[in-house]
Amino acid sequence: MSLKRLAKDSWKRIEEGFDRDHPMARVVRDLTPGEREMSPQSRERMMSRLHAVQGEMAEGERPATRRGVHWQRLAIAGVAVAALIAVLLVFTLPGGKKVTPPKQFAKLDVEMGNIEVRGPVGRWRVAEDGEKLAKGWHIRTGIGSFASVEFPEGSIMRVTDGSEAVVKSLGARSVALEHLRGGTYHRVHKGTRYTVWNQGVAMQALGTAFNVESRVPGSLEIVTVESAVKVEVGNQVHKVAQGEVAVVEVDQGTVDKQPVSRERLEEDRLYKNAKQDAEEGYNTGVYEEVSPPLSESSEPQAPGDSSAPAPPALPAVSLGGAALENSVTLEWGVPADIEYDSIVLLRSEGADPVYPDNEIARYSDISIKSATDDGVVPGHAYQYSIYALNGQEVVAFSNPVTVAVTGPDTKPEPASISLMMTSARNSVMLAWTATGATGFDGFVIERVAGPPLEDPTAGETTKTIRIDSSAVSYSYTDTDVQPGRFYKYRVGILVDGAVTVYSNSEAGVVGP
Fold first, then answer.
1. How many CB atoms neighbour CB 419 within 10 A?
2. What is the mean pLDDT of residues 426-441?
3. Per-residue pLDDT tens for 280-313?
């Protein structure tokens, strides 16, 4: 039997206890800590591999003239057993505690055409359907090609033709990507912190579906299909709502938001992605407002059919909040020219609230302008937002508000801040999230720059930048940098003008 056939058969269910008298199994059991028994699934995987090695040995074994080869194969088998034992001991210490966290992987689906991948080091190669992608992996598509990447927490990135992207980081509930060129469509799983970078612009999903295009040099387009996307350009934050398209002129740092046109919605690449969402049972947001919606139509309507006008840009609702003992009181106001029939209150921890995922209350009496939230925990900080609806359509939303809840004898969560850095063309993008921080004034960025290129013998230079913001999540683009020069950053939380805690440090060399 060939090794390939044995490997294929190793996926079959193996009866529990079959390896009780196997000498290799006894060795592994003797070395396993008594308080941590191997699971049946782990034993299946290990023994399947051992049997495959044995099969390879048996297939290549010959009479005494091949004795040297036989002993060589036995040595290989011994190395395989030693490797399995080493892996087992790494993951099973006394008490059953894992000391090495599992690495996160994304799955690549090659749907059509020429798809290539490249690891953190190495060359481009043809991608295999179903292969795993980890942090630092690149994917690119050729003409007429299409692929999708499924992330471990459930989000999906679809990469259209002539495009390239890289996985910056993967977590149990977070995804960070860099969109390098072409078009990518993002379907974000509920509760995931999902960020896409391009040329120093950060796009953070506040909802579930958006499209990114960068096929014109120096220009970036974001179309929000469902809910909203927070777009950060320099020190400005823009919310691109469902049914809006934003065009960012990267060099000038300008953002132009408009209602998305019917013609743009029917563009082939974008339409196919939305259609695939509909076929897979996802909410297609703005496409539900066209006539007929995607769920009822197999082909886009003829360009120029304006029977379903694009939704208008969303005005802002004012929202304020204050902490009481064991509760939060909120007050809001909606502009008089807005027609709405209900108010939705959102609440979250650690990030801006997302509609409709973080809804905690809905009011059909629009005369209500305040509310008290007593479903909070002392010592925690919460973010609130208000959405105004007319039927099922969002017509206005508020600014996010952060409120820290106090109470008797409560010990607040220690403040911490997590920093991520990525370099773009002639700039560095910093993004951070503060947790456990309450009543802070803002942030301070500390930067250390290595010697300039024209004078390698010069010393380091330092610079501090103050950010006046109480947002728990923030990003900043440093454009005062020199390509090829080394930079190191950390961010501190300011309370009454003093730094109370610093983030981790991030460093790197700025690319050309």
1. 17
2. 77
3. 888 888 888 765 555 554 444 433 343 433 344 4
Virtual torsion, Cα 391, 394, 398, 403, nearest 10 deg: 70
Please give the radius of gyration of the chain, using alpha carbons only, rounded to the nearest integer. 28
Bridge-partner residues for 245, per DSSP?
223, 258
Contact 450, 486 (CB under 8 A): yes
Is the model's pLDDT at 345 over the cut of 60? yes
Mapped onto helix, strand or coil, the DSSP state of residue 433 is strand
Cα 246 to Cα 228: distance, rounded to the nearest angstrom: 12
Instruction: Specify the length of the chain in residues.
Output: 512
Give the Cα separation of 170 and 103 in Å (integer): 9
Q: What residue ranges in 206-302 does DSSP mark as E strands? A: 209-214, 219-226, 228-233, 236-241, 244-249, 254-259
**pLDDT-derived band at 338, boundaries 50, 70, 90:** confident
Which residue in this structure is represented by tokens 């387009």? 221
List the one residue out of 102, 99, 87 whose CA is nearest residue 49: 87
What's the pLDDT score for residue 370?
A: 92
**What does the alpha-carbon distance between residue 397 and residue 355 come to, in Å, rounded to a whole number?**
10
Token pair listed for 253: 């740092």
> For strand 174-187 and strand 193-198, is the pairing parallel, antiparallel, or unpaired?
parallel
Beta strands in 144-274 (DSSP E): 146-150, 156-159, 164-170, 174-187, 193-198, 201-205, 209-214, 219-226, 228-233, 236-241, 244-249, 254-259
Distance of CA 418 to the CA centre of its chain: 15
Its pTM surpasses 0.70: no
Q: How far apart are CA 358 and CA 226, in angstroms?
A: 15
Q: Who contacts 235 (Cβ-Cβ below 8 Å, separation ≥6)?
A: 467, 476, 477
Residue found by looking up tokens 């969002």 in the block: 394
What is the structure's pLDDT at 358?
Answer: 87
Q: Which residues pair with 428 in a beta bridge?
A: 423, 478
**Which helix (DSSP H) or strand (DSSP E) does residue 365 occupy?**
none
Q: Which two tokens stand for residue 493?
A: 């939380």
Q: Which residue is listed with tokens 């390098």? A: 180
254-259 vs 359-363, strand pairing mode: unpaired
Q: Which residues partner with 150 through β-bridges?
A: 107, 156
**CB burial of residue 105 (10 Å; 0-12, 13-18, 19+):** middle
| Cα separation, 197 vs 213, whole angstroms | 12
pLDDT at 465: 92
Rounded CA gap, 119 and 436, in Å? 36
**61-76 pLDDT per residue, tens:** 444 444 444 445 555 5
- From the list 244, 445, 470, 504, the residue with the least C-alpha distance to 352 is 470
